[in-house]
Amino acid sequence: xxxxxxxxxxxxxxxxxxxxxxxxxxxxxxxxxxxxxxxxxxxxxxxxxxxxxxxxxxxxxxxxxxxxxxxxxxxxxxxxxxxxxxxxxxxxxxxxxxxxxxxxxxxxxxxxxxxxxxxxxxxxxxxxxxxxxxxxxxxxxxxxxxxxxxxxxxxxxxxxxx
Length: 162
Hints:
By secondary structure, the chain is an all-alpha fold. 83% of the residues lie in helices and 0% in strands.
């Protein structure tokens, strides 16, 4: 999901140099620590979602045998499994980008390595880009659900009247 972007060259003579103070390095290291922690928690959460996905088919089939009214749910187990696996895949990439940012920024601060800091910030950019894409998808889906609800409500109201 990561693409190398061609960045416009900076003219070093006309651009001021960026200097990181000790406080800046401290804040970057602490941000890296938290990103590392959240990345690991994200990997654990991804594993839990993936394991739950593997059992969804069985759970839905068992529910259908216990309650005859849940017969339609038995066929939905594979669909729910696929949805859970997709959620696990998305969750994995969020965790991966956070983990990579955390490890790289900590290494960059400890070794005073500009290239490593650049790589770390690239992973942070990827994290926020992915977050932005999914935010746009979520907003679009909510708009569609809202419009669908209005259409369904109008349809139900006209059916009750007629």
